Recover the amino acids of this structure.
């Protein structure tokens, strides 16, 4: 299964005991919007009654297995039963960790990118197993691409779908970034949307020097090679967004956040203009004008990490 994904959907009122979404029709690669048509659930379709539902901040969590007390966890800590006959483990199925991560990454993104907190609900739908996640998406969203996790949003409430596995918290961090960054106004270009999500998906203490993307980017910069920002900006569809684009997008976001304060302010201002609906020049063109030695600055930024490692 491939990486996570953020898609736009007309999805008003879909999260309840039984979803009524029937299929997704058509696509618009220019703005990555898909149209969701709704109808009655056909006989034999998957119907889900959420065994667990709770709210934390703006997140409404729905899960298909009950929360139970864990004998291996401290008193008062709850974990989710994976399935009948399977033991839950606090390391994999701890709802307290899920709740904490949802709130923490939301606050990190808002603080770093100067985004005003919103109150609109984000629905988080968690399945106890990958096959249940796939079965559900196939029933209600059959034309969506298969990803390890999905964030869907347009005119209705944002919906985050994922399943329990070893990297669940990483997936949740990634998708919550999409939820916060795409909350209002115009969506960022794909490269920036995914680059910001890649930046925040690792734990907070690893964001500066602990990303798995860092060694490959440092190696390229040691050869005086920087990824083409103009090339990234030309990618208009998630279908075209290959693994290397995630790495390169992360690198540009890391550079803009950490190289110097003027670049960070430029990124923050660009995202603020998008949220306000202000007509704005593409960020890559702004950077070419305000930072004539952009390539040299990028290479120097990541060569610094090579010297730290040495």
């Amino acid at each position: 299964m491939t990486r996570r994904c953020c898609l736009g959907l007309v999805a008003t009122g879909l999260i309840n005991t039984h979803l009524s979404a029937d299929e997704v029709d058509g696509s618009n690669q220019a703005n990555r919007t898909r149209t969701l048509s709704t109808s009655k659930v056909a006989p034999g379709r998957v119907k889900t009654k959420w065994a667990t539902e709770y709210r934390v901040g703006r997140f409404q969590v729905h899960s298909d297995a009950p929360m139970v007390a864990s004998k291996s966890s401290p008193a008062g800590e709850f974990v989710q039963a994976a399935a009948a006959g399977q033991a839950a483990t606090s390391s994999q199925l701890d709802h307290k960790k899920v709740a904490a991560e949802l709130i923490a990454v939301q606050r990190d993104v808002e603080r770093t990118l100067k985004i005003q907190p919103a109150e609109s609900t984000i629905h988080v739908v968690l399945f106890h197993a990958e096959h249940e996640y796939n079965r559900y998406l196939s029933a209600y969203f059959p034309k969506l691409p298969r990803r390890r996790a999905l964030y869907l949003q347009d005119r209705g409430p944002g919906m985050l779908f994922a399943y329990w596995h070893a990297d669940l918290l990483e997936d949740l961090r990634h998708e919550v970034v999409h939820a916060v960054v795409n909350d209002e106004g115009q969506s960022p270009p794909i490269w920036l949307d995914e680059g910001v999500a890649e930046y925040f998906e690792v734990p907070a203490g690893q964001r500066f020097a602990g990303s798995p993307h860092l060694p490959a980017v440092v190696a390229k910069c040691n050869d005086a090679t920087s990824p083409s920002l103009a090339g990234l900006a030309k990618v208009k569809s998630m279908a075209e967004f290959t693994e290397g684009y995630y790495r390169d997008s992360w690198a540009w976001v890391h550079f803009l956040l950490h190289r110097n304060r003027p670049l960070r302010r430029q990124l923050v201002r660009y995202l603020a203009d998008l949220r306000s609906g202000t007509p704005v020049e593409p960020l890559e063109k702004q950077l070419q004008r305000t930072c004539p030695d952009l390539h040299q600055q990028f290479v120097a930024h990541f060569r610094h990490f090579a010297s730290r490692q040495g």
In short: The chain has two domains: 5-184, 204-309. Confidence is low (pLDDT under 50) at residues 9-45, 69-92.
